[in-house]
Amino acid sequence: MRTEQLEYIAAVTRLGSLRRAAEELRVSQPALSETVRNLERELGVDLLERKRSGSTMSTQGRELLPHIAGVLEALDRLRAAAGEQHRISRMVRVGTVNAATIPLLVPVVREFRATHPVTQVEVVGTQQSEIQRGLSEGGFDLGLVNHLAGDDVPAGLESSQLLRGRPVVCVHPDSPLAARPAVTVEELLREPLVAMRSGYVMHRFVHRLLAGRDPVFSYSTDGAEMGKLMVAEGLGVTVLPDFSVIGDPLERLGRITYRPIADDTTCVLLMLQRRRGDAVAQAARDLHQGFVRRARELHVISGVVSPTA
């Protein structure tokens, strides 16, 4: 068994494709495929389920994945202890819903980069269901997702609550709604609404809030960041968790602001998730702790959002 065999299977698992793994590792796809098959023959198990849409870990492969990760981490520690100046990059993949928070994510990645200069961080914005599937299959190391209070956490995932907030109406400072202490549902219905697509927690919340009624006009977007930009350009309003707006660069520049929703007490939670029971690489553990520390700092700074230790 060779080290590169384990690194190859880890790359295929993370990227979900032999082709993408070959591109990242800079080897030919046939050579990569043969190396993986040699490892499977040596171990006597099929590590991958090969489909037209890509390659994912088999059930047997998932059981062995923590051991593979443990071997690779042990090799890294050995190289470091021996003083070997290797430049082999490790990558931590973070899936995040777009209604997470830039004030949380950016400082954590910046701090992590300073202490882990050869470890790449790949941030992938997608829907909650895709993040949780990626965590279960090993494609993501960490996931940032929003939950409404009372939502179930999928079995097999370990969750840490980072922030507790409430839905707010994000508006342009020149909007008449900015002069209101709170926005009623009737007022919201009279405004062009930038809505999240189906599959996002805030889509589900707004549908419930409006009770099936349609606003005067609505846009549909795939993420909070585009929604905030549209609000900053005066195209309408959107509904987001307060922690997605507070401290955002557009909010700090005075391009957007927010108001609570009248008579609404809904709680939105920003959760940090990872697969339960895995042998987690040190870099992923360090990034996890970075998110927890930053969440506590945000609570102190804003006094609005509240993390759970």
Structure characteristics:
309 residues, five-stranded mixed sheet, elongated, 44% helix
Report what the structure shows:
The chain is α/β, with parallel strands linked by helices and 309 residues long. 44% of the residues lie in helices and 23% in strands. The chain contains twelve helices and twelve strands. It has a five-stranded mixed beta sheet with strand order 4-3-5-12-6, sandwiched between helices. Strands 9-8-10-7-11 form a five-stranded mixed beta sheet, with helices on both faces. A two-stranded antiparallel ribbon has the order 1-2. Helix 5 crosses helix 12 (282-302). It is elongated and about 70 Å long. The two termini are 42 Å apart.
Present the secondary structure layout.
Blueprint: H1 3-15, H2 18-25, H3 29-43, E1 48-51, E2 54-57, H4 59-81, E3 90-96, H5 102-115, E4 119-125, H6 128-137, E5 142-148, E6 157-165, E7 167-171, H7 185-189, E8 192-196, H8 201-210, E9 217-221, H9 224-232, E10 237-241, H10 242-245, H11 249-252, E11 257-260, E12 268-275, H12 282-302
Parallel strand pairs: 3-4, 3-5, 8-9, 8-10
Antiparallel strand pairs: 1-2, 5-12, 6-12, 7-10, 7-11
Helix pairs in contact: 1-2, 1-3, 1-4, 5-12
Largest sheet: 5 strands, mixed
Low-confidence stretches: 83-88, 301-309
The strand order across the widest sheet is: 4-3-5-12-6
Number of helices: 12
Q: How many strand segments?
A: 12
Kindly state the percentage of residues in helix.
40-55%
Estimate the strand proportion. Answer: 15-25%
Would you list the SSEs in sequence order as H and E?
Answer: HHHEEHEHEHEEEHEHEHEHHEEH
The helix/strand class is alpha/beta
Q: Shape, please?
A: elongated
Radius of gyration: 22 Å
Average pLDDT, rounded to a whole number, is 84
Report the end-to-end length measured between terminal Cα atoms. Answer: 42 Å
